[in-house]
Amino acid sequence: MSILLVIPNRNLDKLIAKFQNLLPNTTIEVWPNVKEPQEVEYIVAWQPPKGSLAPYTNCKAIASFGAGVDSILQYDGLPDVPITRIVDENLAKDMSRYVLTHILAYQHRLETYFKQQIKREWKPKRARAGNKVTILGAGQLGSACANLLHLNGFDVSVWSRTKKSLANVNCYGSDQLTDAIQDADYIVCLLPATKETTHFINHDFLAKAKEGVVLINVARGNIVEEQSLLKALSINHVAHAILDVFSVEPLPKSHAFWQHACVTITPHCSALSNVDTVTQQLCENYLRLMQNQPLLNVVNKDLGY
User: Which residues are catalytic?
Assistant: First the structure.
């Protein structure tokens, strides 16, 4: 029996050492150099290449190395086994602080003052108005963001496929999207990446938002149809976009977002997993698998999260 790591384009030496420390009697294999494919019963994957998971016919469970599972579910022919994801409270804390920080930075014109400092200019301006925030997605991250924004005095709404009930938050369901976003000063995307959410934020979506809205995407890049966003920015219907995720990562150097005056780019850093927390969760599920116990944080494959 062995654990297989399918995490391409990354140095895994430290991760392997952590696995071996927690599971000293377990063999850790690294794709694509797998010595005993039939011994693999537990696969840990992150952005696995197409077809890379199919050969391991004795696999009993697949674990995402992060909170998302879209890079695993995107391929047909996956083994018919449970798929789990990482749930890390620190991710929720980091994500909510990232969102709050960028909203406050935009309100208080920090980017303008950074540029003024370079030019040695002194031109104070009032903070921008706007206090309504709509969050798309009411999972762990969306709920944490809603709570922190409320505590900081924002009027917060949350839209989700299934209407939730959150304290101090206006909650909307799947058929209430227009109501949820039409008055928002800020729209924060924290939707899961599924077939249904691909290009969810497109021309029609943005047309329902009010003029001057600020879009923050910290979910997945393919949820935003980039050309529609660029058009909305060009006519000032969207005043600014704060983007941490993109359809292609790293963002190509030739992409229009890089030089756009109304786009703030960060390199998919809004909430990064702690490798110790991740490894502990993965090892716990491996031990549960070996003992025929229920796994933690199992994904609904039909929903994609």
Answer: 220, 268
**How are strands ordered across the β-sheet holding 2-6?**
27-30, 2-6, 40-45, 61-64, 83-84
Q: Are 198 and 225 in contact (CB under 8 A)?
A: no
Rg of the chain in Å (alpha carbons): 21
In this structure, the number of other CB atoms found within 10 A of the CB of residue 67 comes to 21
Q: What is the pLDDT of residues 113-156, one digit of tens each?
A: 999 999 999 999 999 999 999 999 999 999 999 999 999 999 99
Q: Which residues, other chains included, contact 91 with Cβ-Cβ below 8 Å and sequence gap of 6+? A: 67, 140, 141, 271, 272, 273
> What is the set of domains in the chain, with CATH numbers?
2-88+273-290 (3.40.50.720), 89-265 (3.40.50.720)
The answer to whether the CB of 45 falls within 8 A of the CB of 278 is no
Phi, psi of 150 (to 5 degrees): -60, -45
- DSSP 8-state secondary structure symbol assigned to residue 42: E
Token representation of residue 296: 């933690």
What gap in Å lies between CA 89 and CA 179, rounded to an integer?
A: 30
For the sheet containing 132-136, what is the strand order? 170-172, 155-159, 132-136, 186-189, 213-217, 238-243, 263-265
pLDDT digits (tens, 9 = 90+) for 200-250: 999 999 999 999 999 999 999 999 999 999 999 999 999 999 999 999 999
